[in-house]
Amino acid sequence: MKVDQVFGLRSLGTLARALSTSLALLPLLETAAEEALLALRAASVSIGRLEPEGDVLRVLVNVGDLALTEARFPVDETYALAQWGATRQVMTDGVTRTSCLGDSDCDPTEAELLMMLGKGSSVAAAIVVDGTVWGEFYATRHTGQDPFAEGAVDYVDVLTAIVGAAIARSVRETELAYLANHDALTGVLNRRGLDHAARRLFDIPGGMSRTVTSLGLDVNGLKQVNDQHGHARGDELLSELALSLQDAFGSFPGSVIARVGGDEFTVLIPDLDPSVATEIVETLCRQKDESWSFEPSAGISAGVSSTLLTGRGDATPSDLLAAADRALYLAKQMRSSVVVVSDELIA
Questions:
Q1: What angle do CA 170, 44, 173 make, to 5 degrees?
Q2: Does residue 144 come out as left (phi exceeding 0), alpha (psi in the -120 to 50 range) or beta?
Q3: Which 3-state string (H, E, C) describes the chain?
Q4: Please, what are the domains in the chain?
Q5: Nearest by Cα to 263 from 342, 327, 183, 192
Q6: Spatial distance between the Cα atoms of 228 and 235, rounded to a whole number of angstroms
Q7: How are beta strands 256-259 and 264-270 bridged, if at all?
Q8: Distance CA 265, CA 185 (A)
Q9: If we measure between CA atoms, which residue out of 114, 123, 129, 135 comes closest to residue 56?
Q10: What are the angstrom distances between the C-alpha of 105 and each of 86, 101, 108, 172?
Q11: Mean residue pLDDT across the chain
């Protein structure tokens, strides 16, 4: 059974246009698999990704007539390359490979896989992204159908090239979106990311209410540390504080942690008693006083503000952040590691 050349070309054109849009990775792979299923007249199509360690293939999407062991979006369908020789050869050599049950040259592990899936033949190809093998395209036909021939191999080679380019674009767009909203040094949100997250927290459904607490934190003495020991040491303190904030508040659902300036951080925590948040940040300040004792000038000042949102005449994110900033300013005036609680917005 051959791939219809006209239909195959149309399919590749449709696929190229579809994948030129800004699709998230999983919908992108699903679209490619569905298009290939039709063009190849396949029983099933699967696309998997090579794990970072390079020794396991994890299937991300299956389409078509699936075996009982398969799911459209599998939770944990993996193939160890050391166990599945044909898969390892495709991943290592990057050569498109066809197999058919009963053929003398059919790899034993591939024959085992085809029998496990209830299929008669397969075609497999590596998906290469930016010069590196990223994953595998795998299609099957039912027992009794003609195995995949040269035309199918040509189609798969072009398809995997298109998919590889689309994945590269998707990855770059994801990375750019991440960089646009995250601080490059610490990995927490930046000011833009904070603004987006704050708007979501302040969007209250009708009839609901929510308490949001804002913490403003500042690293005292960072300039002296930079001047005396270099900016690398100052960066270490900032990164350490970001990790400490994630450890302290990251487990609270909906919490937001951001670096909003050179030495300033903001934390937003929904649905947490403000007094609990204050106790946590006070403990954090004491811990940093102790762990940073070798830097006499270094410490943490913090301001706390909180508001109750009801959806009627609420304070805005800017109001809450500004109140915490003013409390932080008072804390810094005391020239020591201290926490000041604002009385402006607390409900």
A1: 5
A2: left
A3: CCCCHHHHHHHHHHHHHHHCCCCCHHHHHHHHHHHHHHHCCCCEEEEEEECCCCCEEEEEEEEECCCCCCCCCCCCCEEECCCCHHHHHHHHHCCCEEEECCCCCCCHHHHHHHHHHCCCEEEEEEEEECCEEEEEEEEEECCCCCCCCHHHHHHHHHHHHHHHHHHHHHHHHHHHHHHHHECCCCCCECHHHHHHHHHHHCCCCCCCCEEEEEEEEEEECHHHHHHHHCHHHHHHHHHHHHHHHHHHHCCCCCCEEEECCCCEEEEEEECCCHHHHHHHHHHHHHHHHHHCCCCCCCEEEEEEEEEEECCCCCCCHHHHHHHHHHHHHHHHHCCCCCEEECCCCCC
A4: 5-181 (3.30.450.40), 191-341 (3.30.70.270)
A5: 183
A6: 13
A7: antiparallel
A8: 13
A9: 135
A10: 11, 9, 9, 40
A11: 87
Write the CB contacts of 333 (distance below 8 Å, at least 6 apart in sequence). Answer: none
Measured CA to CA, the distance from residue 345 to residue 36 in angstroms comes to: 58
Q: 53 burial class (0-12, 13-18, 19+ CB within 10 angstroms)? A: exposed
Burial class of residue 318 (count of CB atoms within 10 Å of its CB; 0-12, 13-18, 19+): exposed
Neighbour count for residue 135 (Cβ, 10 Å): 25
Note the pLDDT tens digit of each residue in 277-309.
999 999 998 888 888 876 767 888 899 999 888
Structure tokens at 15: 């696929």
* Separation between Cα atoms, residue 219 and residue 298, nearest integer Å: 7
Q: 140-173 pLDDT, tens per residue?
A: 999 999 999 888 888 899 989 988 988 888 878 7
Q: What angle do CA 243, 290, 275 make, to 5 degrees?
A: 65
Q: What count of residues does the chain have?
A: 347
Q: Are 3 and 152 in contact (CB under 8 A)?
A: yes
Burial class of residue 169 in the structure, from the number of CB atoms within 10 Å of its CB (0-12 exposed, 13-18 middle, 19+ buried): middle
What is the pTM assigned to this prediction?
0.61
Contact (CB, 8 A) for 148 and 99: no
The per-residue pLDDT for 334 is: 78
